[in-house]
Amino acid sequence: MKTVLIIFLFAASLMFNIALLASQTVFEMASSAFTALTDMPTGASKIHPKNTKVNFKGKKVTVAEAVGSTANGVKRRAARTAAKSVSAMAFEAAPFIGTTAIVGVTLWELNDLCETAKDMDALNRALNPDETTDADQTSVCSIAVPTSEELQEKVGKQSKESFNKFKTFFSELNEE
To answer: What does the domain layout of the chain look like in residue ranges?
Structure first.
């Protein structure tokens, strides 16, 4: 009985090894089962790192999914930001309401840049779990945007200063 069991296990092991080599589906199932049971990467995941599981935004996903999600988010935000910037140009050029438009569009753009920085940081941490977040990466999220009133006040002061410099310059020219 013991000999029959050993021969059966040997034959089953041999057939399983042949199936692993002959069938990609069997190989992928065995590789996935090993990774799920041990939470360790397999040789296959080292050959094809895009299939390696990583922690990304609180979920276990493949490297390919993490990169794809980040790339799609960045592309979507870039297209949206470009459309907003172009459509806001007419409002930005208008007197008085232009400063409000500039503040609004700048806030939109900073928000999009902040989300992109967060996505890139999440991807970086997924691919490099030992690396810490750099303060420069998150600094874009804390930039203070002046209000339209503050901008108008600053422009008014600069205009007055420029006018005074202009006036002094021309008065000195007239004296010569």
So the answer is: 1-47, 52-149
